[in-house]
Amino acid sequence: MASVETAAEHERILREIESTDTNCIGPTLRSVYDGQEHGLFMEKLDVRIRNHDREIEKMCNHHFQGFVDSITELLKVRGEAQKLKSQVTETNGRLQDDGKELMGSMEELQKCRVQQRNIASTIDKLSHCLPVLEMYSRLQEQMRAKRYYPALRTLELLEHTCLPRAGQYRFCSIMAENIPMLRTQIRDTAMTQLRDFLESIRKHSDKIGETAIRQAQMQRSLDTQPRAPIGRRSRKEAAAAAADGGGQRGSPVSEQDSGILDVEDEEDDEVPGAQDLVDFSPVYRCLHIYTVLGLRDVFENYYRKQRRKQARLVLQPHSNMHETLEGYRRYFNQIVGFFVVEDHVLHTTQGLVNRAYVEELWELALSKLIAALRTHSSYCDNPDLVLDLKNLIVLFADTLQGYGFPVSQLFDMLLEMREQYGEILLKRWNVTFRQVLDQDNFSPIPVSTEEEYKHYTAQFPLQDPELDKLPFPKKLPFSEFVPKVYCQLKEFIYACLKYSEDLHLSSTEVDDMIRKSTNLLLTRTLSHCLQYAIKKKNVGLAELVQVIINTTHLEQSCHFLEEFISNITNVPPDSANATKLYGTSTFKDARHAAEAEIYTNLNAKIDQFLQLANYDWMAAAPGGGALEASDYLVDLIAFLKSTFSVFTNLPGKVAQTACMSACKHISTSLTELLLDPEVRQISIGALHQLNADVQECEGFARAGPVAGFQGDTLLLAFSDLRQLLELFTQWDWSAYLADYGKPSCKYLRVNPHTALVLLENIFTSVSTALCPVCPLRRVLTGYLSRKYPLLCVCVCVCSHG
Question: Model-level pTM?
Answer without folding.
Answer: 0.65
